Amino acid sequence: MKNLKPKEQIIVITELAPWFTPTELKERFGLTNAQIYHCCNKYGILKSRENLSKVKQEFLDELAIHIADKKIEKLTAVMRQISF
Predict the structure, then answer these.
(1) Distance from C-alpha of 12 to C-alpha of 70, rounded to nearest angstrom
(2) CA 35 to CA 67: how far, in whole Å?
(3) What does DSSP assign to residue 82?
(4) How confident is the model at residue 1 (pLDDT cuts 50, 70, 90)?
(5) Per-residue pLDDT reduced to its tens digit, 10-20
(6) CA 4 to CA 82: how far, in whole Å?
(7) What is the pTM assigned to this prediction?
């Protein structure tokens, strides 16, 4: 495994820490938890759990809107069919 220079470490962490767990980054790049958390805290980078929770919530919000739209669409179609 290649030893990353400090600038390369920052690139890896800023781009990948929101999507990969510290364990995955350690396995792929040899970064320690301390390096990852220090860089995330210093530069305000979301950690993987925080980011994935945020992405999941955004997805659920979009799903709720989609479901509400479909309900209205289906209700309107039925109301037209039964002339209500």
Answers:
(1) 41
(2) 42
(3) T
(4) low
(5) 999 999 999 99
(6) 68
(7) 0.76
Kindly tell me the burial class for residue 21, based on how many C-beta atoms sit within 10 Å of its own C-beta (0-12, 13-18, 19 or more): middle
Cα distance between residue 29 and residue 24, in whole Å: 8
pLDDT of residue 54: 97
With vertex at residue 20, the alpha carbon angle to CA 59 and CA 18, rounded to the nearest 5 degrees, is 60
What pLDDT does 2 receive? Answer: 76
Is 42 within the bounds of a domain? yes
Q: Which domain holds residue 32?
A: 6-81
| 57 and 80 Cβ atoms separated by less than 8 Å | no
Task: Give a yes or no: residue 1 inside a domain.
Answer: no
